[in-house]
Specification:
Blueprint: H1 6-18, E1 30-41, E2 48-50, E3 60-73, E4 76-89, E5 92-99, E6 102-105, E7 107-108, E8 113-114, E9 119-120, E10 125-135, E11 140-145, E12 154-162, E13 165-175, E14 182-190, E15 197-198, E16 214-217, E17 222-225, E18 234-239, E19 244-249, E20 254-257, E21 265-272, E22 278-284
């Protein structure tokens, strides 16, 4: 990587910004829907559907199913009873990891990114959580499965198509430890086509470019100079392909960060502040 003295770096930063367009970043286009009141789903309620962009096409369905029946455990005839929290992927795809042909849903932390870098499932039904008690005659054994089993206010990453274009989003949900209930809290997506999205809404800031913020670097340090109104605000620094390099909270007017060998390219400083949220694009030459 090539580093320059602060003065030259600032100059190159300004020159780089002259060639940027508003399409470089899609975070300011995030739409968030607060499900109020939260939607509770059990085996005795109707299933709950989500139309991510409200265009008349349902992408995801949530339901709870009571389970009981006969099986064989270690060659021993057995019975089981319990419940399963189920995600139906009707016209969308959930994010996860495919390991040895087994696709496991990813439980995202708030602030993580959903983008084209993630894997997405192609099935129409997934288990958010399963909790069964299996009676094998010689004892009762629990069977627990699912990335969201017992999770509170967790985030499911998703992708979906609208008018032939791919969008990335997330759904905030809770699944009981017994897998007998699901609660949908909120969901969101990036209106900008093929643009990454921060789960939980950290990137949902007004389309306001903060021109009074300076970003520059020298050989060892990345400097972010802010105004006093932003002290205490949360921030992220994200590359054009959606990779997060930094996240934290501003503690002073001039903040010093380790560059971590940032590759050359365009980055965006995203600020989530109650007083003055916004974003600042900058260029590392």
């Amino acid at each position: 990587m090539k580093y320059m003295a602060p003065f030259v770096n600032k100059l190159n930063l300004i020159i780089g910004l002259l060639f940027l367009t508003s399409n470089t970043l899609g975070y300011a286009q995030e739409v968030i829907v607060d499900v109020n009141p939260d939607q509770l789903i059990t085996s005795s309620t109707s299933s709950y559907t989500i139309d991510m962009d409200d265009n008349g096409t349902v992408e995801f369905l949530f339901r709870v199913q009571e389970m009981s029946g006969d099986t064989v455990l270690g060659g021993q005839p057995s019975t089981y009873v319990g419940a399963s929290a189920i995600l139906g992927a009707l016209n969308g795809q959930p994010a996860g990891v495919n390991d040895n042909s087994i696709f496991t849903l990813t439980n995202f932390a708030e602030g993580e990114i959903v983008s084209s870098a993630n894997e997405f499932g192609v099935d129409t039904s997934y288990s958010l959580g399963i909790n069964l008690l299996i009676d094998a005659g010689i004892g009762i054994f629990p069977y627990l499965y699912g990335s969201f089993l017992g999770a509170n206010n967790a985030f499911l990453g998703v992708s979906f198509e609208s008018e032939g274009n791919t969008h990335y989003g997330w759904i905030e949900l809770s699944v009981s430890s017994g897998s007998d209930s699901i609660i949908i809290h909120s969901y969101g997506y990036n209106q900008s086509v093929e643009q990454p999205v921060d789960v939980g809404g950290l990137g949902a800031v007004p389309a306001q470019v903060l021109n009074d913020i300076n970003v520059w670097s020298n050989y060892e340090t990345l400097f972010v100079e802010i105004n006093s109104n932003l002290i205490g605000g949360l921030y992220k620094i994200i590359s054009a392909d959606g990779k997060a390099y930094y996240s934290g909270k501003f503690s002073s007017i001039i903040n010093e960060l380790n560059p971590k060998d940032l590759p050359r390219g365009v980055y965006t400083l995203i600020i989530d502040s109650d007083k003055d949220p916004g974003m600042k694009r900058f260029y590392i030459p």
